[in-house]
Structure formats: structure tokens, C-alpha cells
Amino acid sequence: MNYLTRDKIADIIFLKLKDTEEVLKKHFDKTRQDIGYFYVDDLLPEELAKDIFDKFPHTKDIQVKKSIREYKYVAAQMNKYHPLLEEIIYAFQDQRIVDLIAEICSCKDIKPDEHLYAGGISMMGKGNYLNPHLDNSHDKDVKHWRVLNLLYYVTPNWKLENGGNLEVWPKGLKNEPISIDAKFNRLVVMGTHKKSWHSVSKVKVDQIRCCISNYYFSSEPIDAEGSFHVTTFRGRPGQYFKDKILKLDSSIRMGVRKLFKKGIRENPHVYKKDKS
After folding, report:
1. Distance CA 244, CA 241 (A)
2. What is residue 39's three-state secondary structure?
3. Separation of alpha carbons 248 and 47, rounded Å
4. Does this model's pTM top 0.70?
5. What is the distance between the alpha carbons of residues 97 and 18, in angstroms, rounded to a whole number?
């Protein structure tokens, strides 16, 4: 084994976050009323971050999600890929990291998700995108609230003009979003609740943007008015007909979930571990 384990990677992440804890807390508090987010650059040593990028699979080896809502590549069954990818994902689930991020974001009773429900790795190439959406409000068993989204970007030399950048819509979808570029070795943490609309701009270059994703959950919603909702997509400003279709799509899926709390089929995007 010639790669760092999750414990060693967590040591590095913890020190980086601890060094900037007060700055991060102030930024999250400043933005909390609308969405709540912060980001940290140069999270890991450069060579380690590049090594993580190099270990990503080819897009042909992971699931493609292509619809009117989104176009991207995702994977959660991490034992199919290089072990370093699993180590970096679960480094963010180290209790020290979870507790520190919970403190920064003033959250209580935070739990990581060992099943990687909607987490894991994602890849986006030319033409890929994510329309504005709200993340599903709960975990796979509908027992805990989804409260924080962690996105760690690892594509070297990624530029803002490449597209594929996170967009947050703190003033709603009728106003301009804030673009947070998917800069190499950058960690973004954002709150997830009924106002945390976010999207990913269309990738404009023939390159692959790679991301490590984690969600944290809690027995309490991050906002005071938590309400159950499925993943809800909308059109961008100017996408009038697409917006109508996506609103209808979300309404139908929400209706189904009112009848079947966990849905009519198991979401396949989870890490099914060998119980032996």
C-alpha cells in the first residue's frame, strides 16, 4: 500500500480547518440567513491532491445520469475503484472533522453517512451540467435531516471560464447566482435546506472536472422551518418551458413520496458494503 490512509488524511484536513476556523465561522455566519457556506483552498498537500485526481476512473466505468435535470457521472460503490478514493471520502467522516465542521457551522448532532447516499465521486465533462435544485431533505431511510454538503474539487489547473462551477442562488432563482469555481484542491461546505438552491454551470472544455462528495445529516434541520422534500429541480432564468416541466416533474415525484415514504424503489446511489 503506497497511499495515505483516511486517518492520516484526516489529520491534515483537521489542522487546515483548525488554522482557519474563526475565518470560516464568520463567513458561514455571514451567509447563513440565505444559504450558509464557506470554502477552503489548498486543503491537502498538492502532490496528494494530484494523486487523488489521478486515481479517478474513466467516465465509461461509472454511472452516467443524463436527463432534463442533469448530465453528469457519479459513483458510490467505492470498492470498485482505487482505494485512495475511498480513503479521501471517509477522511471527511472522521469524527474530528465532523465535529469541527459542525462547530464552524453551528450545527448540532451531526452524523456523516457511511452509505454515501448521493455522495461518493462525481465527474463532469464537456456539455455536462446540473440545473438549479434543492437536495433531498433526508437520508436514505428518511430518519435524519440532510444539513451539510461537502464538495472537494481535485482537477488541476481548473479555471472559472471552463464552467463546471458550483453556483449558489442565495436570493432565489430570479436573481443572479454566486459562482464558486471548482478550483483545484478546494473544499466547499454549504448548508442544505429549503432555500439552498444551487447548480453547476455547463462544462465548456474537453476536460473532466472531478469532485469528492459527502453529506452530513442530523436529527434537527439546519433551518428553523425544516420540511420534507424530494430533490427538486428548476429551470434557469430564461428556461421558461424547461422550468414548467421540471416543476411538474418535482410535483409528481413529491406526490409519490407522500404515498411511499421511501419511494417506490431503492435509490441505487449508495455504497453497498460486504457485510462479511
Report:
1. 5
2. strand
3. 46
4. yes
5. 9
Secondary element (H or E) of residue 120: strand 120-124
Domains of the chain (ranges; CATH) run: 6-259 (2.60.120.620)
pLDDT one-digit tens code per residue, 48-64: 999 999 999 999 999 99
CA nearest 198: which of 175, 245, 228, 166? 166
Kindly report, residue by residue over 182-224, the tens digit of the pLDDT.
Answer: 999 999 999 999 999 999 999 999 999 999 999 999 999 998 6
Q: What is the largest CA-CA distance in the chain?
A: 53
Taking alpha carbons only, the member of 122, 121, 115, 119 closest to residue 143 is 115
CA distances from 72 to 17, 20, 61, 62, 160 (A): 29, 32, 13, 10, 18
Rounded CA gap, 217 and 180, in Å? 23
- Alpha carbon distance, N-terminus to C-terminus of the chain: 22
Rounded to whole angstroms, the Cα distance separating 199 from 201 reads: 7
Query: Is-contact 166 151, C-beta < 8 A?
Result: yes
* Cell triple for 79: 470498492
Q: Are 107 and 36 in contact (CB under 8 A)?
A: no
Burial of residue 175, with CB atoms counted within 10 A of its CB: 0-12 exposed, 13-18 middle, 19 or more buried: exposed
Coil, strand, or helix at residue 239?
coil
Residue with cell 478546494: 186
